[in-house]
Each structure stands twice: as C-alpha cells, then as structure tokens.
Amino acid sequence: MRCPPYPEDMGSEDRVCPACGQHVATVVRRHKTLGAFVPVWRAGPCRNPQCAAYVASTADASYRASPRVGAMHEPLLHLTERSLWEAARASGSYEMSTRGRTLQEEGFIHCSLRHQVPQVAHRLYGEHAASGELVLLVIDPQRLTAPVRYESMRPGGEEFPHVYGPIPVSAVVDVEGWGNGESTQA
C-alpha cells in the first residue's frame, strides 16, 4: 500500500473557487518546521471578475499584507533577450526559463520581483546586461494560467517566483528595455 504524500502527488489536485467553482491556480509557500522547509499548497485567488470571492480577496487587507501571498498582486518580472520575446509574441506564449534553458528543460520559468532584478541581471548576463539587447517582461500574475510558486535555491535563501507553465503573451503587460531606460507597451 502506498502512503501519501509522495512528491508527485503534492499539490496535484485541482483547486476551485468555493464561490463560483472556477478552477484556480495552485500556489505554494514554504515554512520552516523542525528545521526543514515544508511546502504548503493552497488555492490561488479567483480570477473571475464576476465572482464574489474575487472581489472579497482583492479587498482583503490581510491577503495583501502577507509578503508571499501579497506578492501575487505585485508584477512578476523576467529578464530575457529581445529576440526571444519577439519569437514568443509570434507564437503566443513565452517558454524560456532562464538564459539558455527552456521551460521544458527546467520545469518552470524563473521570474523576479522588482528589487531582485539587478542581481539576476548581473548573475546571468554580467557586463552584457547594459547592452540594450535585453528586455524586462512585466507579467500580471492574475493573467497567468499556470501556478506560481515562491521558492529559494537553498533553505533559508531568498525566494523567487517561479511560473510552472508557459506565460501567455497576454499576461505580459509591459516590456521595459533593460540597461537603456526605454519602456514599450507589450
């Protein structure tokens, strides 16, 4: 007999809004228990504007106050090469995880919050970060269809948002030039 939970089972059930029954994304946050980081899976916010739960969740101050949960309303950012973004616009979805790695290879798309972008740019692109060939995708997490999980590379490390699926072009609400101060609408 198999005793749950196995990692492949964790968070795999479909989550729905209790008010309207619409499917919602699964999000995870981690907390430390007995010296180990343990994931806690929960339903994300309802994205149906006609749903009473949608209105209640966006107006709930305690929901916005939590750094991990509240970050769901903060835009997610992804630094990429201009040519990769142009290819994604043509195909309808963005599927690069990080520099030189695809969503299929990595399992998720690396994103950042605004304060994390400079260190990511330096780590991934070094002196090429100021070349003008990079763009910063500004992603509205409410428009994503894939789950967003905040995870760190090591226990106790800084958590970064990861998108566990392709990013629809419609979820990118702005494209900012990186290193040259330009900004263009998506």
UniProtKB/TrEMBL annotation:
Span of the signal peptide: none
A Pfam family: DUF952
SUPFAM superfamilies: ADP-ribosylation
InterPro entries in alphabetical order: DUF952
Gene3D superfamilies reported in the protein's UniProt record: Protein of unknown function DUF952
Name of the protein: DUF952 domain-containing protein
Source organism of the structure: Streptomyces lannensis
